[in-house]
Amino acid sequence: MFLCGLAMAGSGWYLAKDALACLMVSIRLGASRSVDLTQEPLRLEVRNIRRSFGGRAVVDDVSLQVKPGQVTCLLGPSGCGKSTTLRIIAGVETQDEGEIYIDGALISNATTALPPEQRSVGLMFQDFALFPHLSVSENVSFGLTGTRTEKRLRVRELLDKVGLSRFIDAFPHELSGGEQQRVALARALAPRPKIMLMDEPFSGLDNRLRDDIRDQTLEVLKGEGTAVLLVTHEPEEAMRMADEIALMREGRVVQVGAPYNIYNAPVDELAAAFFSDINVIRTEVKGALSETAFGQFLTPGYNDGTPIAIVIRPQHLRIDFDRAGHGPTPTPEHGTWARGVVERARYIGKESLIEFRMSDGSALKASVASVFLPENGTALWLALRRDRCFVFAEGFGCDFSSP
What we know:
CATH 2.40.50.140; 6-stranded mixed sheet; 5-stranded antiparallel sheet; Rossmann fold
């Protein structure tokens, strides 16, 4: 449940825009889900799979749906169960519970499983796993069936798509890391798999090369119409590549949505923090209100003493100058202004990051998309953009699990 509903600005209450946005996004997501399930075919469907090791649930009731041509990212920190989920779908690991369907046909449950080579699934991993003694052409054609001519045509088609046709007779050691990655992609796509499973395939590339390779890979995958399930621990990569993100934590999928929605309507504080730096203002409910240095937030339906976290990203704090000990007049957009003292200011290329110590002893960060470097000890006034606040009670958030 999204809690940033009404807030005090000056002498009156107003409806925070995020409350309406949360409702509208919920309606849109609910509508889109009904369309997806009834009108568009699913290439991959994972239903309630579980896997435990030594009594510890590594994958816990995970469900996913991927359509042809769709890129879905399994995103989460190391050890959250992403790779195990991928291995279960590939068939190299067996689930304890749950079912997996490809094009509506059951291919795996807790008792029976189709062998990996019969699932029409392609695999890409971090190390590329190219055969060093085989040429590029032989690597790409490895596992292909058909005549020599048919294999050669398919190899040339894919090498043209990844821009490596001139290296058709070269060996892996003669290629750069980015070129080896594209050969691995071509090899995985050669048998025309229905589904491509990718386990952090870009992590071994340097940052500047990684962006180009990711974009080229996405273009090729979209051109082939392949359903893609990509595992990554990098939010930026998921946002850049995915049509849909499934955020995992401790073996469970905690939120599913389009990149825009999952970034702008996180399900809880941890989800918000995974995508960017955040400021957290902690308070508690008293008489259906939560008091902060930035004014009151209305939090009805919770008992007095319920802990509340008001979350806002650094770029959504507003900064204004001190006016002889006074700040700007409160407004519906920004609410009440609070005084802070600069502890540190840094320019980090795209923006300036300023750290403040507030009068109550709490620390906040604000970012400015320009060069802004006030001296340490400077008193400035801060305000929260109310339409960019997320307010969570413990155990609650903006729930998109139902329309």
